[in-house]
Write a structure and sequence with these properties.
343 residues, 9 strands, 57% helix, 4-stranded antiparallel sheet, 3-stranded antiparallel sheet
């Protein structure tokens, strides 16, 4: 009998070497990722903390701040006795001087009364005494009214100054509050800029560490991207294997298998351990698919002129076993394809 010749299509040698190199690099890269410490690329250390300026702004915003003294001064300018601190120290001198002048002018009116009494022939009499008493009473009343008027004028001026002081201090407090708010806003904005800058630096450090850890895997992926077009576009090379002619025993076994196949073609029950290795077949053609999706082939056994229907053992590993002769056999009770002889 002639020897059995098998032809295999293999990739080019340099492509095969590249594939081996890629497999080794990929294995190392994946192995390196198994023990990765994720705390080096994730965690609070990559979150920028508050800056000193932000902390300062936060502290300034917690209290009344620099406008507290103005509020205290405004509070001191209110109340029933607040006017006293605004009375002029010279007011009493003005009152005393005015009253003395009044008294002088009042005394000048007494001689006029005496002259009137003499002219009326009543000098030293009761009528003159009555006139003097009335004059003195009216003079004392006018003097009291003048004094009250002067004091009222001083009180009004003091009250007005107290109100001005109150409004002034409130205005200063408002200005101080506005300045403080501007200061807080400015500090917060500068602190936020510093924090954003630090956050960007931390993100860059994180990306650098991430890149360092995943660099081997990324390099392997890039390497694969480079060799894939070569693998798909470069022509392969053929490898020819010659199988020696079967011995008399193998021929006998083959004959028995053929006879068994002929017998099983007439048997309706599933057949077990049928030689179905692709290496034992020729003139193979696909003729359909089973309900489960298995390929159904038409073929001839080597050294057998009959055609059969069945599967290829290499495509149904769940139903195949390797025989002692080195060829695969199929248990057809485990597949939904019928093995039978066909025309």
């Amino acid at each position: 009998m002639a020897d059995v010749t098998q032809t295999r299509q293999l990739p080019a040698e340099f492509i095969e070497a590249l594939g081996k190199t890629y497999a080794e690099d990929l294995t190392k890269a994946i192995g390196g990722l198994k023990g990765i410490d994720v705390s080096k690329i994730y965690g609070p250390q990559f979150v920028a903390p508050q800056t000193a300026l932000q902390q300062q702004a936060q502290q300034l915003g917690q209290g009344l701040g620099v406008f507290q003294p103005f509020l205290q001064a405004a509070q001191a300018a209110t109340g029933p006795t607040a006017y006293q601190q605004f009375l002029s120290p010279f007011q009493q001198d003005v009152i005393n001087t005015t009253l003395r002048q009044y008294d002088v002018q009042a005394q000048k009116g007494i001689p006029a009364l005496a002259a009137q009494a003499i002219g009326a022939g009543a000098f030293g009499g009761g009528r003159e005494g009555v006139q003097r008493a009335e004059y003195q009473t009216q003079s004392d009343l006018n003097r009291a009214l003048l004094q009250a008027q002067l004091q009222q004028q001083g009180f009004g001026q003091a009250q007005q100054l107290a109100a001005q002081q109150y409004n002034q201090q409130l205005g200063l407090a408002g200005q101080a509050q506005g300045l403080l708010a501007s200061q807080i806003s400015g500090l917060g904005a500068l602190g936020q800029q510093q924090q954003a800058q630090r956050q960007a630096e931390l993100e860059a450090e994180k990306q650098l560490e991430f890149q360092r850890i995943y660099q081997p895997l990324q390099t392997s992926q890039q390497f694969l991207g480079g060799i894939q077009p070569l693998i798909s576009g470069y022509p392969g090379r053929e490898q020819i294997q010659v199988t020696p002619s079967p011995t008399a025993l193998q021929t006998g076994l083959g004959t028995l298998a053929t006879l068994a196949g002929i017998y099983r073609s007439f048997s309706p029950s599933p057949l077990v351990n049928i030689s179905s290795d692709i290496r034992l077949k020729e003139n193979i053609s696909l003729i359909g698919k089973s309900p489960s999706g298995l390929n159904i082939y038409k073929f001839k056994y080597l050294n057998d002129n009959n055609y059969y229907q069945g599967v290829m053992a290499q495509e149904v590993p769940h139903a195949s076993i390797l025989g002692k002769d080195g060829f695969y056999k199929v248990d057809y009770s485990k597949v939904d394809v019928e093995f039978k002889k066909v025309n």
